[in-house]
Amino acid sequence: MQPTTTSIKEKLHQTFECIDDEKILEAVNTILGSYRNEAEEYELTDEQLKELENREADHLAGKTKSYSLEEFRNRMNKKYGY
Question: How does pLDDT run across 66-80, given as a tens digit for each residue?
Fold first, then answer.
């Protein structure tokens, strides 16, 4: 049986708790730093935020149609084979 993402995370967490070697921790931090930075540094532009606000207003006013996640997946699968 292959490990799940959750079980891998738990094992990594337990391993990190036992590591006292600063050099190893710095190396891991360097490796993971690029992943964290990409996720943390992204911000929407003012134009993108304005567009989201406009779309939300249209949705709340009933001007646009929305779909459940299941409906969306079905539409994407039917249209694009996803």
Answer: 889 999 999 999 988
> What are the DSSP E strand ranges found in 30-69?
none
Do you know the residue count of the chain?
82
The per-residue pLDDT for range 44-71, each reduced to its tens digit, is 889 999 999 999 999 999 999 888 999 9
CA distance linking residue 74 with residue 41, whole number of Å: 33
Instruction: Give the C-alpha distances (Å, rounded to integers) separating 9 from 16, 25, 37.
Output: 10, 16, 19
Burial class of residue 28 in the structure, from the number of CB atoms within 10 Å of its CB (0-12 exposed, 13-18 middle, 19+ buried): middle
What φ, ψ does residue 60 adopt, rounded to 5°? Answer: -65, -30
